[in-house]
Structure formats: C-alpha cells, structure tokens
Amino acid sequence: MAQNYQSSYQGQKNIAQSYKFNEKFEDSEEIDDDEISQHEMKVKDMQNRVSAAGNQKYNLGLNGNQDNFYSKNGGNQNQQNMGNSSYTNGIQQSINIYNQNKNKMNDTPSKINDIQINLNHSTSEKPSAICLIQFHQDSNRMELGSRAIEILEKYSDHKICFVSIVGLYRSGKSALLNKLLDIRSGEGFKVDDSVNACTMGIWMWSNPQYNENDDLYIFFIDTEGLQSVEQTQDHDIKIFTLTMLISSFFIYNSKGVIDETSISQLGLVTKLTKNIAVNEYGDKMDEYMLAQYTPKFLWILRDFSLELQDQKGRRISANQYLENCLMEDGNTKVQQSKNVRKAILSYFKDRSCLTMVKPISEEDKLKIMDRLQLEDLRSEFQKQIIALRALIFQKCTPKMFNGQYLNGRMMISMIETFINNINHKEGIPNIQSAWENIVQNECILGHQVGLQQFESQMKTLLENRETAVDFMELYTNFRAIRDNVLEKYDSIAGIREKNQYYHQYRMELINHMESREQQAFEQNEEIASTQNDLLIQDLTKGLNEKFVLKKFNHKNINEYISEFNEQLINHFLFMRLFSQLNKQISIDFQASMISMQQE
C-alpha cells in the first residue's frame, strides 16, 4: 500500500514541478540552460517510465479513467494499478506541460518578429533618434520638437503609446534601448563612454513598432538621466513627472539588487502628487486620482547575478522579489524609504520586475557595448532582451486619458499643454487643462473638416446650375449633406462626453450651413424668377408682334382686346400663384430650420 501511495504521490510531484517550471515562464523569469537540460533529462526518464507502464497487462493507461479497469488479483492489484496510473498520469501531464513550455520558448523570437512590423517600407526616411521635448537651459523652458510633431501627426488616425525608460544618468538606459530595438552602433540613441550625461531632455525613436494584434503603434523614448551634476532636483522632477504622464509603459532602470539605496533613488515618486495639478485652481492630486493616470511600471535590475530567493531560501520570481522588497518597510527606520515604497504600491497598480545579467563578461568591453551587435553579447542577455520585448508587447496598451484612447494628434495636444503648464503655471502639469485642450482641438478640427466637406458637396450640387430646382428636391439634398457633415463632425469631435466645446463648435457649423442654405434658396428663387420673366415674355411675344406689325385695326380691335385680356389674366394668375408658392416655400424653410435646431 505504501508503495502504491508513493507512486501516486510521485506522479503528483511531477505535475507540481512542471507547473512550477510553467510559472517561471509566465512570470518571464530567467531560466538558464542548465536548468533546461536538467528538466529535459527528467522528461526523458518520465517518457521511459510511461512507455514501461504502458506495457503492463493491467495498466490503467494514460487516460486517467480510474473507474474502468480490470484486475485478476482483486483489490490489492487494483490499488497497485491505481497507484501506477496516478504516477504515469502525473508523468504524462508533466511531459505535456514541459512540451508546451518548450514550444513557447522556441516560438518566442518568431512571435516577436511577427509582431514587430516596422514602418520602413512606408517611408523613405532613415529612422533616427529625434528630440521629443527639448530643454533650453538658458531660459529654463521646455519645447515640443517640431520634427516630433511632424511624425506624431502622421498617426492622427491611429492609436499610439509611449514606452519610456528612466533612471540615473550613466546607468545604460540608452544602450539598453538600442539593443531592445536592435539598432546598429552609432545610429540609435546617443551613448557615450565618458562620465558625463549624454541625453538631454526627452528623445524619441522616429520609427514606431507596430503591434498588429492590437493595431497599436509603439514609440520608444529615452530620457535625460536623473541626479546628474549638471541639473537640479527641480529639473529631474519635471522630466520624471512629464515622462510618467505621457507614457503607457514606464521602465525604471537601475543596477544591482533592490536595497535602501536603490529605493531612495526613486524618491521622486513621492513628489508626484505635489507636482501635478488637478484643475485650473491648482488643486493637487491624491493617491487614488494619480493612480488613474500612471502607466504600467517595470523595474529592470541590470547586472544582476544573485539567485532570487525568499527569506526561507525558496526560489521566487522577479515579480515576487519586487513585491517582497516593497513590503519590507517595517525593516527600515528611514522614513523616506517607507514613503517611496508606499508611493510605488499606491501609484503603480500594474508593476513588474525583470532581472538582466551583465551583457558581456569582459569588463574592458563594457565601455564599448553599444558598438557590439546583440549576437556578440552573452546568450543569457540575448534571451533576456527577447523576454523584455515580449513583455513590452504583451503589456503595452494605447495611451488612455480620461477614458479616451489617444491618437498622435491628441498626444501632441496633451504634451503641448503639459509643457505650457510647466513653463508658465507654477511649473507643474495640469490634468484638466490638458484634457480641455485635447477636447477643444478635436472640436476645432471637426469644425474645419465639416466646413470643408460641406462647401465641397454644396459646390458639386449647385455648380453651373442654370435652371431652378424644385424646393423639396433642394431641401432633401441639403438635409442629406447636413447629416453627412454632422456625422463627420461627431466622428472627430464627439470625444466620450458631449462637452461645452462640442456644442459650441457644432452650433457654429450648423449656423454656417443654415446661412449657406438660405443663400442657395434665394439664388434658386432668383433663377426661378428669371425663368418666369422669360416665360411671360414668351407668352406675350406673339401678341406684341401682331401689334407692332399692325395686324389689328378698327375692324378687329375687339379681337385684339380679347386676346390681350386673356394674356393679361394668365399673367396675373401665374404671378399670384408664384407669389403664393414663394410664401409657402419661405414658411416651410423656416419651419425646417427650427426643426433641425431642436434636433
């Protein structure tokens, strides 16, 4: 009996080990080659055991059905077969889990390559690092780069997001981005092997990566290093806060383990609520409100060589390591560290951690790492770069602001407002003003596009028209044009809620269309009046010719008078009918205008 239970227990243990291996995959945890080899040896042994078990006459098989089995030797043999079945089932499940993981590992690079569809084919320009936000040190002002505006405007009809990297200066942020984007030496973000900071302001890679599954364009941005001797803490706060507000995925780059020093270096997090205004009155954000605007957070631990374990020596994932470090505030007496931990837990609800080994073993080559190709670096580092790419594409979502996905045009509006706030209004970004600026700009654009569409369709309808149109036909055409224009306006300006700007610019558009329609009706009446005059002239033409040619004399003067009276009566009847028709047209037109305004 003990042996039977042991077989069952061993099968379940195999399952548990394979699921543990699976969890490491799901957490994007580092799995080295030795561990894979050991697991493969276990799988081969399991497969041999399964094969041997399959040859047993009374084996239950691998279908897991413990109700349908046969036995010659009664209960004991049945119990043994059940034990063997559980064991072999456990082995088979373990093999299946491992094969799934192995397929994931083998498929990862190809999936990433499938996702990363560059836009090089759609542009003749060579991609490069361009200045997104420039800082003018002499005037202490920021400015949105003109080249960045041109590029972002190309994505006005597409969802976009920013993946940013922030950290201390000289910590390898730019070099990591170059390897992440597989950019050749000297062609990517600026890297310098001196001790001076080489990135000033905020820079963007001009060519976004395209995630076809989510129809999302992902821009990567590099930031000026924090705690540079060339800048003040106030400047660092502006860079940190601005980057955080515009990003969908926020990478914090540091070296080594998470300890009190690395925690304290993230002290700017505690100043976020004091450096973001909620409204025009300058009210500051609370923790709950700020969490609605913060991006997904990834802490990358560079040059990490330790084995991740908890206090009991059990292996843990990088994500669990981060959570454990953030929850250890009771072990420190430094209040600043407690505040940083609390801020990270409160602001960044979606957070994760990734460890990366040194990219190259030779110390003397670290200074020239950016000149080396990715395939020249340690294989383990290459795998971690691939894992980082996969994690970014998995977690990246379009930038959302007040419940609205932002396109390139909206992103420009938001950044411009934040920069203007920093330059003028107490030096801090204002959420409400940024949102209102986005909404107003979208309404202005919707108004402009609507006017262009209206004038184009009206020109097509009325151009080179020499004869008057029936009123109802003209009215129907105007109504169709108006409906199309307002639908176009709504598609651009109708952001989530119907705001004051929406109604303001929509009414301006309607008023313009009413004015132009009134002009068109009046022009149609003038054409009709001219046509009527010509008709009357044609009706009286014969009578006039007879009078001029003196075909009437004193003998047939009565015939002339009778014909003249008949023509005159017809003329007055027509003019009366025409006057009544015009009056009814005016009444119907005014009634239709009132009805449209009420709609």
From TrEMBL:
Superkingdom as given in the UniProt entry: Eukaryota
Keywords, comma-separated and alphabetical: GTP-binding, Hydrolase, Nucleotide-binding
InterPro entries: G_GB1_RHD3_dom, Guanylate-bd/ATL_C, Guanylate-bd_C_sf, Guanylate-bd_N, P-loop_NTPase
Presence of keyword Nucleotide-binding: yes
Domain GB1/RHD3-type G: 157-405
Keyword Hydrolase: yes
One example GO MF annotation: GTPase activity
Stored Pfam families: GBP, GBP_C
PANTHER family in the cross-refs: GUANYLATE BINDING PROTEIN
Family: Belongs to the TRAFAC class dynamin-like GTPase superfamily. GB1/RHD3 GTPase family.
Protein's recorded name: Amine-terminal domain guanylate-binding protein
Protein source organism: Tetrahymena thermophila (strain SB210)
